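Crash report, auto-generated. Payload:
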Amino acid sequence: MWVTVRDLVGSCIKLNWVTLWAQVLYDFTAEPGNNELSVREGETVTITNQSIGGGWVEAQNSRGEVGLVPEDYIEVSYIVSVDVKSMEEMPAELIPRSVSLLQATNGNDPWSAWNADPSGGSTNNWASNPEGTQTGKSAPDPWAPVSHGHPQAYQGPGKKTKKKKTQIASGTMVVLLLIRKFCLVSLSRFPGFSKSGPELYLLCKQLVKGKDRLPIYVGEVGPVWSYPETQLDCVVADPKKGSKMYGLKSYIEYQVTPSTTNRPVNHRYKHFDWLYERLLEKFGSAIPIPSLPDKQVTGRFEEEFIKMRMERLQGWMTRMCRHPVVSSSEVFQLFVTYKDEKDWKMGKRKAEKDETVGVMIFSTMEPEAPDLDLIEVEQKCEHFSRFTKSMDDGVKEILTVGHEHWKRCTGPLPKEYQRIGKAFQNLSSVFTSSGYQGESTLTDAMTAAGKTYEEIAQLVAEQPKKDLHHLMETNNEYKGLLGCFPDTIGVHKAAIDKVKEGDKLVAASKITQQDKVTMAKRASTMSYALQAEMNHFHSNRIYDYNRVMQLYLEEQVKFYETIAAKLRQAHSQFTTM
Amino acid sequence: MWVTVRDLVGSCIKLNWVTLWAQVLYDFTAEPGNNELSVREGETVTITNQSIGGGWVEAQNSRGEVGLVPEDYIEVSYIVSVDVKSMEEMPAELIPRSVSLLQATNGNDPWSAWNADPSGGSTNNWASNPEGTQTGKSAPDPWAPVSHGHPQAYQGPGKKTKKKKTQIASGTMVVLLLIRKFCLVSLSRFPGFSKSGPELYLLCKQLVKGKDRLPIYVGEVGPVWSYPETQLDCVVADPKKGSKMYGLKSYIEYQVTPSTTNRPVNHRYKHFDWLYERLLEKFGSAIPIPSLPDKQVTGRFEEEFIKMRMERLQGWMTRMCRHPVVSSSEVFQLFVTYKDEKDWKMGKRKAEKDETVGVMIFSTMEPEAPDLDLIEVEQKCEHFSRFTKSMDDGVKEILTVGHEHWKRCTGPLPKEYQRIGKAFQNLSSVFTSSGYQGESTLTDAMTAAGKTYEEIAQLVAEQPKKDLHHLMETNNEYKGLLGCFPDTIGVHKAAIDKVKEGDKLVAASKITQQDKVTMAKRASTMSYALQAEMNHFHSNRIYDYNRVMQLYLEEQVKFYETIAAKLRQAHSQFTTM
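Recovered output after restart:
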């Protein structure tokens, strides 16, 4: 997805594109005959076409060469001009992370009016603003609240603008802003903020009725989604190389076969990515939608990579299929059962126009249970927040330990067993040279023992693929899922805060008493949704960890038993004297 | 054993002690109440009493403090004066490694006459001679021939002295020589050189008859020693702390019980050392006498050390008991069966006066087989030399690999299993906090799996003591044994060379024709002895490696089976859904 500034801030700020400028983050070597452009880390390019799609942009380097570059390999900056007046209305979440003043068109320095950072006062060299250059490179902490992510950053325009308002030139003065793509994408991950705050739902007039209705029942474990009788399942298989643009661009197409129709449809990675964006947009406020496996550009046609990506796409699809809300959604059904290209194109257009997105998804939910009071809602939310944070830590610990174990099992450990094996064999061949009669039993046995240790070396090196791999993949999936919770929980916390403000808002005549009652009721609905989702998460978690631990231990048992059997065989060759 | 310069060169050089001076090689901290002296690396002390024994000398530091210091911790230099004329007769093996000129008593510089090294010309600062200071620190290569050990060293006095004879002042001129104890001890390990060359035996007039006779038979595998019907065995046990010098010095006494009398005798480490020196002196030219376990000073009263030393003394005793020639010798029998203190003292005195030592041991040997021709003798010797060198390499490889494996098994590997175990348990306790009902089966199983990996960590860390330990100890013993062969084989090669010179020596009337025939016959006897010894070595080697490999693999099988069983148990706790 190519997020535009217009999407994000268009509603409140009048802005014009000036240019699209990008800095290369990693070396990229063009694959021959693929219309690609080789770029080096640190190089600067201009974006000549951002609507290529599939994770690619067309860029021009300083030598005038034009070609496709993976968008993940570059950091794009949008240089836009905005009316200085609009600065007051700039969303607080956007500015601290992403806006630097480039230059003012009159003598006044409007920057000083709304940014206390003295380095921000430099007027025509954006690079001299250390905040601006650092933001794009350091990974943001998804667990940190957005508005506190950057301690030294501008604290939001609302308050400061009011204080120093007199310093701002009024009228038509224009400033140039540099907005990093990174920040935009990052913001787009916060559905509650990118589209609207929870108040959009809390205070909206009409709720969705009819077929889009999402009931929430109360089961044995508490609130639960409505589960279908038979669970959808999809097989992702048979990756094939295709091409487009008269053969200039190659890609890999996967066959996706749903258990309902048993009829395969073809999808490229970019289609999965499109589905992911739709699901995120539509359900992200209520349901954690895990990211797809990483985009990768270099070596993307290599067999090993294709196999791994397919395995992970399969994992992602299985998880989506297992979710009753996601799997029964129109967009997901379109993805797995579209009839032909026309059907797909039309469905796509419809999905992109869907207005029940962001927090509005809650408007479709109907808990069949009495409303919860705010204290209960808040306690549940706090509990889920603590749990998901702890589990995130636990999962990351397993990944760290597992990664180190993987390295040892495939690196130094088998080398050591191999050396032990070689040492036994070498000594055996020295013994053979003794000329002393009747020691062949010993030397044969020692050679066999040596070979056994060489076999053990190989077993050790191959074992992680058999057991640790699944443990790592499952935990990786959960890391991805858990990484979505801060956003989901953030929306709930914002809603709770809004409800808490209820009396104040009524007193200030910003909302009616009825609005206040509605808000509390809807916060309860959001809580039921969160609880249903947590219960879905827990039940899947219990299933997944049971399965993966069983698999891991089963393979570990086999591994140690195989080694023991090999050694017992080696042992039997020595004579007892 | 405290080797004196007088022992080594007394016969050919008139010399007088001037002083005993020592440099401290390692820090040593005195044990309180043990009459010891703390010394620091690099410090200089004077030796006030070298006849303390048991690996100790009495030393005085620069502050006048006197106390006992372990002799291995210091490098003693003997400063002796010799008649300059005697320099011509100085054994070639001694000078290059150990003699530096300190000062001449007259104006001439006699050093320049017999050492081409310009730095040797400095007359009163021995430390300025880099050869001198380096020799003591670098470990000598036992496989390198003595005379080539030091490429830049003086090439032996015989030739150079002749060339530059005119430069040496004649008469009573005296020079001071610095002789490192290290070099003396090192030389003492070459029985062929320290006592006499093989010609002493090859040309001696009378051979030993009677009870000291050592027959060599020809068995199935070739020449063999005469083996007793029942093999002697000794148990080394029950280490007890004793003291002497009115309680000033403490020591550990071991109980040695031979299978013949079943009556225990007590021995300190220094008694074992005395026995070792006697056996080396008596049999070292024909039979590899492995060194005792290392002397160690710091922590020598610690339980772990005492246990390890006892185990190794046991190993050494067992090996000596197994040797038919060694175990039946008078000195060995004295050691294991002496009746009382008086018996022991008398036996000791007698053993120290034994004249059938060094190459003269061959005079007791009587092969019951036809004489071998020189070519055969030479081929056998070459073959044994190659074999023992290869086996030494093989054994060292196992020790190196085993050492690294030991470190991994007791260091990073168990830590990793522990971290895996902790990670499972941590995730399990996060799961427990979910509040979701009915997941105790999973969390109990995950906790159990985590604990299992902690148990595996402990098994891994303790395993080397159960299996690798024996493998390492056996190979260490063999490393010690094999380290004796270069000397033993060196004596044989020297004898072969002497026999080859036979015709020349007859022509020069240095020996008679009969002497030549005798020499060849005796070289054949030496070869039978070497073959009998090699056959003894081979038969023991086959037994030892069979046994140790069986033990190792047996314990390895148990180890892997135990882990597999533990994991199977952990696996069974997960439910199949």
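Post-recovery validation: Residues 383-572 of chain A form a domain with the Substrate Binding Domain Of Dnak; Chain:A; Domain 2 fold (CATH 1.20.1270.60).
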